[in-house]
Amino acid sequence: MNTEKYYEMEKTISHLYPTGTSTTKDRNNYLSMKKTYKEELRKIEERFKQDAFEELDLQNHPKKEVLYRYAYDRGHSGGYGDIFSELEDIVLLLKELNK
Fold first, then answer.
1. Over the stretch 68-85, which tens digit does the pLDDT of each residue have?
2. Which is nearest to 90 in space by CA: 62, 61, 65, 67?
3. Domain locations in the chain as residue ranges
């Protein structure tokens, strides 16, 4: 899976992430921008997750969310590529166990 497109998607919303605040008005704007940024980032992360499920044929797996959370916990510090790699390893393990 080419995870580069998700990093590119994140770059397109980087302008939404607020910087600094000095007045109440600025603070309200800061909080609003931060909320918008987080919502957009969640959409990107959800798209990545759904694409990963599809590529690994997990769309209908009853425990796909549990598997993803485990992969995320192990790989999120390294980014989308590491999360996908962890998820891929889990899928390979499941296939071996089901032989």
1. 999 999 999 999 999 999
2. 67
3. 22-97
Q: From residue 27, how far is each of 17, 62, 95 by CA, in Å?
A: 13, 43, 51
The predicted model scores a pTM of 0.84
DSSP code per residue over 42-89 = HHHHHHHHHHHHHHTT-TT-TTHHHHHHHHHHHHGGG-HHHHHHHHHH
The token duo for 65 is 């969310």
Q: Which uninterrupted H or E stretch holds 6?
A: helix 4-13
Alpha-carbon gap, residue 75 to 80, rounded angstroms: 8
